[in-house]
Amino acid sequence: MFEHLLSLGIESIFINNILLAYFLGMCSFLACSKNIKTAIGLGFAVIFVLSITAPMNWLINEFLLKEGALAWAGFPAVDLSFLQFISFIATIAAMVQIVELVMEQFSPALYSALGIFLPLIAVNCSILGASLFMVERNYNFSETVVFGFGSGIGWLLAIVAMAAVQQKMSYANFPKGLAGFGVNMIITGLISMTFMAFAGIKLVG
Amino acid sequence: MKLTKTKEFKVFMEPISVANPVSVLVLGICSSLAVTTQLIPAFVMTFAMTAVLACSNVIISLMRNLIPKNIRIIVELTVISSLVILADQLLKAFMFDVSKMLSVFVGLIITNCIIMGRAEAFALGNGPWISFWDGIGNGLGYGWILVVVAFFRELLGSGTLFGFKIIPQAVYDFGYVDMGFMVLAPGAFIVIGLICWFQKTCIKES
Pairing with A71, which of A37, A137, B6, B72 sits 20 to 30 Å away (CA)? Predict the structure, then answer.
């Protein structure tokens, strides 16, 4: 069991990196990778929110939305799974808001570091994407926790790597038209290629 | 007044060319990369996206005077996610295979920054008719990039277009091999980077 979770964690960090293999969270990845400090801040905020919302959405899906999930309330035939999208996004938006409030109250230092990134995260596709993937792949609760946390770490690694490259790149001389978005995409492609070297690594057979 | 001079035409054409949401404004990249391994899902995605974008723009524009400023984001999200649920259910009902191929990316239309961006930047300040054209224009501007990327990835990656073999067997006999790299994630990044380079160079010259 533990080995299985460990291997799932490694997989979600390196092999199936949520950004480099599934393209989720590209918008904030491109917008906030100008310097390493911002990138790290945003990365930690993503880890934080992902590891809260993924299990949260798992519980909602398991006990409210799935086919037959309402059996405990006496409605075994009800299937509310078409409400998945709207309830997941509402949970994410609400969780982000709550996290922001709690953080401001109890940890002003953390709030000043991550606070400005939190509203941005509510519409980061990687958060909703992770919740949808966990439904599609039928993860159980502990798998979801590991998957959410691992995906967050994977995202952090990717954005920090990108920020580091971009900082060095500001002195480089690009052909006109390629500078900016074009070259960023190509660099992301190269980073993604390096991550592909991890493919095929399996801890447990 | 000529058609090309109307305001509607301008808001329709601008996102397709000079203010393209994907390659110029850098919005909505996530899904544009993931669904482009083949042409069919790219077309379906374009269609779903354009429909959702046009409807959400119209609805939000109709409600623009009723929505209180400080809760507008959550109202917009609700409108958008209801429309996406509709699109998802329709896809599941009528095009089940494609909907399986698109998997989570239909749901991710909700967090596609283009939709939120247009709602915030355009629909909240303009009438429904013109917002509708803005939605269609942005959807198609997003779509043509998708289709071009998918065209190259499918042609080079598996030698097919729309699932039909395009590259003749004779070429393979000479030793031509499909570029497996194009089907994988890095291929998408690099193709879109090159397209953007090409587009920027063309716009500057014209």
Answer: A137
Residues of chain B positioned with their CB less than 8 A from the CB of A25? 30
**DSSP tag of B122:** T
Q: At what angle do helices B72-94 and B39-62 cross, to 10 degrees?
A: 140
Ranges of H-type helices in chain A: 2-10, 26-31, 36-60, 84-106, 108-114, 118-122, 125-136, 141-169, 181-196
What stretches of B159-184 show up as alpha helix (H) in DSSP?
Answer: 169-173, 180-183
Comparing CB atoms, the residue among A24, A27, A128 nearest residue B110 is A128
Kindly state the helix (H) or strand (E) to which residue A137 belongs, with its residue range: none
Q: Let me know: does B116 contact A28? Beta carbons within 8 Å.
A: no
Q: How far is CA A87 from the centre of its chain?
A: 18
Among A46-50, B15-19, B64-68, B105-109, the minimum mean pLDDT is found in B15-19
Q: How far is B171 from chain A (nearest CA, A)?
A: 28
**Span B54-82, mean pLDDT?**
85
Taking a C-beta distance cutoff of 8 angstroms, is the pair A128, A92 a contact?
yes
Chain A positions touching chain B (beta carbons under 8 Å): 20-27, 30-31, 82-86, 89-90, 93, 122-125, 127-129, 132-133, 136, 175-178, 181-186, 188-190, 192-193, 196
On whether the CB atoms of residues B53 and B138 are closer than 8 A, the answer is yes
If residue B186 lies in a helix (H) or strand (E), which one and from where to where?
A: helix B185-205
User: What pLDDT does residue B4 have?
Assistant: 67
Q: Are A151 and A51 in contact (CB under 8 A)?
A: no
In angstroms, the CA A144 to CA A110 distance is 25
Give the ipTM of the model, two decimals please: 0.78
